[in-house]
Amino acid sequence: MIRILPPALADQIAAGEVVERPASVVKELVENAIDAGARRVDIEIEAGGRRLIRVVDDGSGMSSDDARLSLKRHATSKIVAAEDLWGLRTFGFRGEALPSIAAVSRLTLSTKTADAATGVRLTVEAGAEVEAREAGIPDGTQIEVRDLFFNTPARQKFLKSEATETANISEAVLRLGLGHPSVHLRLRTGGRVVLDLPAHRDLGERVRAALARRGASVLHEASGDEGGCTVRAFLAGPEEASTTARSTFVFVGGRFVRDRSLLHALALGYGALLEKGRYPLATLFLEVPGQELDINVHPQKLEVRFARAQEVYAAVRHVVGAAVARAPWLAEASRAVRVFTLPPRPSLRDEDADGGRAFRAGGAGVTLGRTAQGALPLRARVPDRDDGFIGRGVGENLDASLPRFADGGRMGPAPVVAPLGFFSLLSYVGQLHRTYLVCEGEGELILIDQHAAHERVAFDRLRAAQARREVRRQRLLFPLPVEVDDLSAATAADAGLLEALGFEIEAPARDAGAAVAAGKTTILVRAVPEALKDADPKPLLRDVLAQLVEGGAATSAAERIDHALATMACHSVVRAGDVLGRPQVLALLAQLDSVDLRSHCPHGRPVLLRMPMTEIERRFGRA
Question: What angle separates helix 309-325 from helix 260-270, to the nearest 10 degrees?
Answer without folding.
Answer: 30
